[in-house]
Amino acid sequence: MTAVTPEMGKADKATLAGDHSHGATIPDQSRAERRKSFDLGAFGVPSGREEEWRFTPVDRLSPLFAEKQTDPEAVTVTVTGEGFESGTLAEGEAPRGTVLVPSDRGSVLASSLTPNADHVVIPAEAELATPVRIAVDGKGGDKRANAHLVIEAKQHSKALVILEHTGSAQVTANVEIVTGDGADLTVVTVQRWEDDALHLAEHDALVGRDARYRHIAVTLGGGIVRMNSNVRYAGPGGEATLLGVYFADSGQHLEHRSFIDHNAPNCTSLVTYKGALQGETARTVWVGDVLIRAEAEGIETYELNRNLVLTDGARADSVPNLEIETGEIEGAGHASSTGRFDDEQLFYLQARGIPEDEARRLVVRGFFADIVNKIGVAEVVEPLMEAIDEELAATAELVESAGAEA
Fold this sequence. Notes:
Radius of gyration: 21 Å
Number of helices: 6
Distance between the termini: 48 Å
Order of helices and strands: HHEEHEEEEEEEEEEEEEEHHH
Mean pLDDT: 89
Helix content: 10-25%
Largest sheet: 16 strands, mixed
Structural class: alpha/beta
Low-confidence stretches: 1-26
Number of strands: 16
């Protein structure tokens, strides 16, 4: 592991932060210097040549880059659960805007076009027995929705918040998360959109002293889903875990980006994303950034991405980035891999009398097993595995079709 010193220039730091796959261009600046602003004028319409947009089909996202107000009939939002408080926050009304400052055009539109953000509060010392569920149901693929949600877990509280997206719409959305000192908060975001949905999201969290924060992203639907999940710390002792599972079919572009800003000492972070792809034009992108600042002594961090390609024509891009400004850390590392379905494993199972479709299902379930165990939330895991089985049934149809054509 190479330590980055404060004396290193931008080019030296960028070498460590560079893209290690597909021979991509090395970024010319530190991740910490990426522009952030509430001003829409600070972000032009992306061309696709920008570092942060070079993997994204920006031409297909043009409806979301327009300054367009929310259609009242675009989505319906239902909030259920017990033990929490709710309300709204105007622009400039804290804690709105204290954690999330938009970092791209989609996020700044979601902020500027949402006059009143939804506010969910977990009271101090409360331990919620049931999840807070926020269901977003899209009512039409060409209808626009802009949203800003603030989740505030006050000190020493414990809660699970599940945000689920279904139906179809064109959505820009921010989720701003404040995890108070000693709190234990899990936020789950599930994307089970219809195939024509467009979704740009930024989720920013501030993790308090000795707090525990988990963010779980499950993305199975949508034409294009692009999610930025970012974390920084309000004091020492914070723990952040980012987990992701995604499954892309033909025509889908599923993109997940994370940024862990280690700006406080003695904190930890773990990022683990796993995805599968099937179909001629299935596409996934994972970009993981970790910045360890000079003041972040004694931290420990690791990020991992694995991709399983089930059919020909699918493509996964995986880019881990690591910037280190101090050598006084416990550990830091990253890894990524993309591989094809293992026919030898399939043959092994079939040789023992297991039918091909069942054998294929077992191999893919095995691929996802460790991250599913890390998730460990029954309300999430059970429907997730059912959805993966549905995707695998579609895979079996693709394989049979390919065999018939051959």
